[in-house]
Amino acid sequence: MKAKRVFSEEHRRKLSEAKKGKKRGPRPEWVKKKISESEKGVKKNCVKFNAGRFKKGHIVKHTPETIKKIVEARKGFKMPREIVERIAEKLRGRKRSEETIRKTTEGLKKYWAIHGKYEGRRSRKSREWSSKVIERDGNKCTKCGATEKLHAHHLIPWNENKELRFDLDNGICLCISCHMRKHALNQDHSHLEGEKNSSSKLTEKDVLKIRKMRKMFKIPYWKIGSYFGVKQEAIRKIIKKETWRHI
Ligand SMILES: [Zn+2]
Ligand SMILES: [Zn+2]
Fold first, then answer.
1. Which residue in 242, 218, 159 sits closest to 194, CA to CA?
2. Which terminus has fewer CB within 10 Å in the chain: N or C?
3. H-type helices in 141-202, by residue range?
4. What DSSP element (H or E) covers 171?
5. Which among 229, 224, 223, 205 is positioned nearest to 126, based on CA atoms?
6. Are 104 and 223 in contact (CB under 8 A)?
7. 137 CA to centre of ligand 2 in angstroms
8. Between 204-217 and 98-115, two packed helices, what is the crossing angle to 10 degrees?
């Protein structure tokens, strides 16, 4: 055992001053032993939250009665605003580890193997098609020459021809107002509504797919969101049935 050293007040202050901003090295063995010994007594009196009972990512399965009780107890409870904001702040700068990305990609690949890749309106493929069309047309509206709020419009509509959906020759760059006029003339409002309303960027089929992805493959919200080109919050709402309740 080390002999206990006694420092003067002045010396201690100097030490703490010197230590400021410095990172601590690993704890020496004897310190670890002391800590584990002191914790032994603590464990008798209080239960540490989730002290090694569950592994990370473990999904707790409750009986229907327990779920009912939990739902009942939570009714009317609202997470305080500041806590929500604190959590959001923490998540904002979060980086996913390579391990997490690898795992979720594996989940996606399994899904693709069964159901095929998503090639809907908001798919990566579709977004890439749009930006290619806009770029090809010189980043300006082919009707009025505007350079802002540009869309790629399908000459032969999306719903009419599956093969031409991602054909560059079937696309034309239009600004938002020319695009709206075009669709108003065509009497086809469905496409416009889709662009104006972010929640209807998805079709019923997409929504069912999203729920299936979550249920069967446990793919995280952010991954599903990036896959369909919508925010993870929108995915959460779909899965919790806060939106699209009718299906
Ligand atoms: Zn269009
Ligand atoms: Zn225009």
1. 159
2. N
3. 176-186, 190-196
4. strand 171-175
5. 229
6. yes
7. 12
8. 120
Predicted TM-score (pTM) of this structure = 0.41
75: left (phi over 0), alpha (psi -120 to 50) or beta: beta
For residue 92, what are its two tokens?
A: 């904002």
Q: How far is the CA of 246 from the centre of ligand 2 (A)?
A: 37
Cα separation of 141 and 150, whole Å?
7
Q: Which residues surround ligand 2, an ion (CB under 5 A)?
A: 141, 143-144, 146, 175, 178
Give, rounded to a whole angstrom, the gap between the first and last alpha carbons of the chain.
69
- Burial letters for 167-189: b for 16+ Cβ neighbours within 10 Å, e otherwise? eeebbbbbbbebbbebbeeeeee
Ligand (nearest to CA of 194): 1
Q: What is the pLDDT of residue 4?
A: 61
Closest listed residue to residue 216, CA positions, set 233, 239, 245, 247: 239
- What's the gap in Å between 72 CA and the centre of ligand 2? 54
Residue 53 CA to residue 57 CA, distance in Å, equals 12
Q: For the chain, give percent helix, strand, coil, nearest 5.
A: 55, 5, 40
Please give the pLDDT value at position 200: 60
Instruction: Write down the pLDDT at residue 24.
Output: 67
CA of 85 to the centre of ligand 2 (A): 40
Q: What's the DSSP call for residue 200?
A: G
